[in-house]
Amino acid sequence: MTRDRSGRSPVVCGVDIGSTNTKVVALTPQGAVVARRRRTTPRGAVDLSVDAQHLLFAIEEMILDICSDTYRVHAVSVAGVGEDGVLVDDALTPLTPALAWFDTRRADVFADLAPRLRPDAALCTADDAARTLVGWRWATEQPGAAQARSWVALTDYPSSVWTGTPFFSDTLAARTAAWDGHSRRWIEDRVAAGIGTAALLPPMRRAGDVIGGFLSDRLVTAGVIDPDAVVVAGGHDHPIGGWGVHAMDPGAVLDSMGTAEVVVAQAPEAGIPRSDDLDVAPGILSAGTTVLSVEELARNVEWASQDAAVGARLQEMISGDTPPDDYLHAPVFVPGSRGGALPRYTPDAPTSPLSRASAVLGALARIGARAQDAVAACLPGQPAIYAAGGWSRSPGWVETKKAVTGRDLTVIPEPQVTATAAALLAATAIGWDTDPATAMGMTAHLDDIGAHA
């Protein structure tokens, strides 16, 4: 392996700040993932908010652990949660915790804010309690907010500190419900209703932009950062992950199946509008549009699993231990919808736990197919579909989706797709010719397909 002037092997690092876990991946110039680390995203014991400085410390600990005396980082990029953030002072010290996008306190804030939000067709996402402008409003009412000099998204916080430069990733701006994705401008009345003034919003940067060099005393002193290393803007986790798959297979779709099912792709057309089934964000390293559709998975399974017998059958089918029955194709389960509407069975639903579990999985597979349809309609031809996320590791679920939709689905071997995509973005920014298929663990898979063709 190539060594740099320190005698260490050069790598780039990608970070994925998730709602549950935060991951770091190290990637060689050729695209081999040589190290992965994961820690629980640090949250408060009482209200589940995130202390941004604790998060930064945890990420740096993982980078130090990855590098040890073997690797040296030449670039890093951070992707992650879309809506959480903090108010900071001039020294980038957080003045507020990061209110989680799923925190129930947001509901009351949104109820107060909603009457002041005029509909705007230029928004990239629909209005709801999870949007960033709700977090803005909450933060401005917290102790210490009067000393704020800037708002920094939680995902952008590590990079802002490492460079001493607060910034706002454009794919995170798309999640605020206060940004015009076509003109790339803030919508003044929404900013005023949320954070009060656009003066608290830092400069916008595109995914893949070089923000600056490292100023992190801790990492630099440890010798794990190359003197010429740079920090590269990342952004919202799903678009970054989708771009990584697109880099591997241009025009492909990523179906990311975790707590929610998020289907995302890079569409070549600019200015695609948001719809009821589609959120949008800026294209990554392109003039096109990121398109994504979100459907709930875990909440529907949790609801159905309140009946222990149904829950047991669901787990058996998801893992592939028990096949579904014919109710897989029967519309007798209605999934919960956006806005909190509860799932339900129709009056003619069977009482058999196996049949009910089959109906639940069939319904979830169909709404996933609807999300695939919404995204694929923005792409040319018949795009390939790749799967990632925890549910993609469950063979029964993958086979259920194939049986219901009749579509092929290729599971990406690399378990940390978003962190790996962020690392690919960092590698691209410094001119490395890194192979995305190798990074995603697909090279052996594609070679195997070729051998059997």
UniProtKB/TrEMBL annotation:
Signal sequence extent: none
Superkingdom to which the source organism belongs: Bacteria
Keywords: Carbohydrate metabolism, Kinase, Transferase, Xylose metabolism
Domain Carbohydrate kinase FGGY N-terminal: 12-239
InterPro entries named in the record: ATPase_NBD, FGGY_Carb_Kinase, FGGY_N
A Pfam family assignment: FGGY_N
Record flagged with keyword Cytoplasm: no
Protein family according to the UniProt entry: Belongs to the FGGY kinase family.
Protein name (Swiss-Prot/TrEMBL): Carbohydrate kinase FGGY N-terminal domain-containing protein
